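Reopening closed ticket. The problem is back. First fold of the pair:
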Amino acid sequence: MLVKLKIWRTLPKADGSGAERKLVDFEVDTFEEATLLDVLDAVKNHHDGTLAYRRSCRMAICGSCGMRMDGRAVLACKTPMKGIAAKGLIPVIAPMGNMAVVKDLVTDMSDFWNKVRAMTPWLVRAEKPDFPTDGREFLISPEEQQKITKESLCIMCGCCVSECNSMEADPAFLGPAALAKGYRFVGDVRDKGTRKRLEQANGKHGVWDCTRCYFCNERCPKGVDPRDAIAKLGAAMFDHGITSDKGAKHAKVFIDSAKGQGSFPGSEALYNGHLSETALVPFTLGPEVAKPSWIKFGAKLNMKGKAPPPWHSALHRQKGLEEVRALWRVLEGEESEERRGGDLDTPAAPLPPNIARGLRTTFTPEEIFERTGAIVASDFTAEGGREPEMQVDLRTYYGENSVVARHVQEGRAGTKAPAVDSTTEGSTEA
């Protein structure tokens, strides 16, 4: 199979004054099952030994070989080239985005690791923990583990960071990988540093700076879905009353708009079931809304009919609003069943640590195959889609007078082959 590709290289200038980036063409004759990593190995071994890239396990586990192919972050070891070569395409291979390039396809991941470390990526225990009576490790139930299963699958490859629009605009943004790692411990019932973790992820450059483009979910090779983890962190912040950031206040207006009521007396005049743009700007900005620039902005909104008077909501209520509120109470009841027994008429008590919900999805066989490549039958009685074990006639396979044949005759080998009589030269069926 002939594979053509273009690779962004970091090559010395002809005058020796430094290095420059160049797009270099390569052609590789390789086997049909080759991945992008196999092709890069062939380039390095047979064409240009100076090509620099990272690799290690070749099994999509270590995360070392993250890079971009045609502008999309991929793991080189998990990217087959057969279909690309069959279409006659010539992909462009480049280093990951949002990271400084060291050489060729190698990027500096120092900032990546610093942000992960900033999330305290280990369990924080109480000062005087109550150790298990059996002297063994702290155990977690399968139900609690399920809440952090996806986040635990992260291999720290950096593909999500490479595609993060927020990080491109603000390099100080914590980023999807670090925030997903943060939720992995926020959602762990064994951890005792939940509130401190949430406060650390709140505010400038934190959770609320995510633009929700979902590119991190799209490009994650392990199905971690970092954007979902960021949403869970935001929900946990609401549960713990950490809502001082403008992003949290902004989200609160959307919630109150959907419910048709706010958290203070008389708020129904502002909310009618539609998005209350009258409340959106002032409640998000707080006192800052009094600045001349924002007053001017509000005047423009009013002229365009985007800021109706407060009494507008009281006169024009969304139909079915009471049903929406009832559904909302049901959802809140299900979410907080463990802490208040599902009693929807009792005001919600402050949440204990780590109540934020995690993974509660049962994937279909098709979704499992799409995410992992594993084949699972929809009929669980079919042994997970595996083919039945092949029955081998050991006497025919190894010969009638072999040691295996004697094992079969004496019942020491599991097989459905007929027993043999090895006492004579020509064995016969018993």
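Second fold of the pair, where the issue appears:
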Amino acid sequence: MKLQYSVIALAMLAMGAAQAGTPLLPSDAAAATTAGNVVYVSGSSALRFSLASGFVAMCDASTITVFGNTNGSSAPGNNVRGYACTLKTTIAPKSGGGTAFAAGTNVVFNKYDQGGSINGIQPLVLNTALSYLNYGACTSTGLVRSGSFDLTKIDYSCSQGNTVVPQMGVSDVEAATIQNVNNLADNVSAVATSTLTGGVHSVAMAGVAVNLPLYRALQAAQGLTQDDTEANAPSLPLTFLSTVESGNASPQNGTGFNALIPSNGAANATDSAQQAVNLCSRNNGSGTKAMHNAFLLSTPCSTAGLAPVGGNTHVSNTIGTPTEVGNNDATVTLNSSTGNVISCMQHATTDTVLTSASYYRNWAIGMVGLENDPGAGTSSDAGWRFVKVSGVYPSLANGQIGAYPMTYENYMYWPAKGLATKISQFAKWLQNDAVTPTALSTTPDVGTRQGILANSNFSITDPNYSSVTNWIARTTRSGSSCAPQQLVQ
């Protein structure tokens, strides 16, 4: 039976404190919010579970409750999540300065994912309020927990209605890169970030994904066994990927999939010369897209850098009806979330609509962060795969040493002035101390464990992390996404 927490019911529940060692109730989350024991974070969706893993590691595990925004008939938590618990450990930055929250305190950690990395910066400067969870309007999902705690599972779905300016934000790349004109949405201008403080937070990896029909076709063309092992993952060259993401790939000109897969002369979807280059892109404001732009297009890293196809102008964001580009033998869809990119690739697999130039749209390429898991070969197989980039597989091991090129430092920001002292202390802790190698290694989300690394400030020689050194980045870009990676440990 689902329990609906009305305002009256909330008031009744708030009369009694949660029992020690039991999961907090929505009323407890509401009471902690009212007491000011609450933090609001926005920005990069790639970091949603790595941030959460750092926070819940400080909790009495028996008290943790996970909340997500109501999402119709779909799974809750697609845009906003909240984590409430009684702290077992005091939260304070190791660099000193004071306690944020003491052990024994009920605290709520809120993370707003919608809008991507740009929301890790601009709302903090412009004082733009975002719609977080209303803990007075929550419904139990009926989840019965057993075994080890899984922070990816939602205990309550709640309506959005707590409108708050975020106190801190995260971005897949630094402010200068995400705010480049080629990474900004239409009618969005760059803002000065002189009022913010912060720095490198963690490390994330961006991937190139293809839907399963294209994956198998590439394997066949490259003489690989058609399985899902890393050894048999097909590879796409940088020159081809740059051509695709700048909108210049064309089977009519021999630069489409027929540049990689020999034409068999068939007048159907099995022939590479008859397949449109179908790109499922992220829209501007996405850190994943900014990483792709920086590496594949040298934008904004070079005056000779290429603009991404379509920008945000006159390009479809509707799955199944992409915009035709080039010779009407290539298509692009701008997607507001990674979930929509995946849906775009999945739709292509069974798409029966031809382009106006009579090309098929069944082979799709997508921009997907490595924190997403395709579930290859399992009952949850999503029908897409990551490919190698110029022969290098996007694995955690390759990202750790900089062998995989699309590996970038994430950044965290918060206002230098105006925050309550305890919130500033929490921000310092969240930036430098929260996303530890241990927290990442124990995160139940498979994707987080394959696409996020603790930054190189965590030393691989630290005895505290001797068993989890493979979750520590050994490289740095020294504060600029346009700088080459340097091995530092």
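Update: turned out to be a display glitch only; the data is intact. Residues 8 and 315 are 47 Å apart (CA to CA). Residues 421-434 form the longest helix (14 residues). Please close again.
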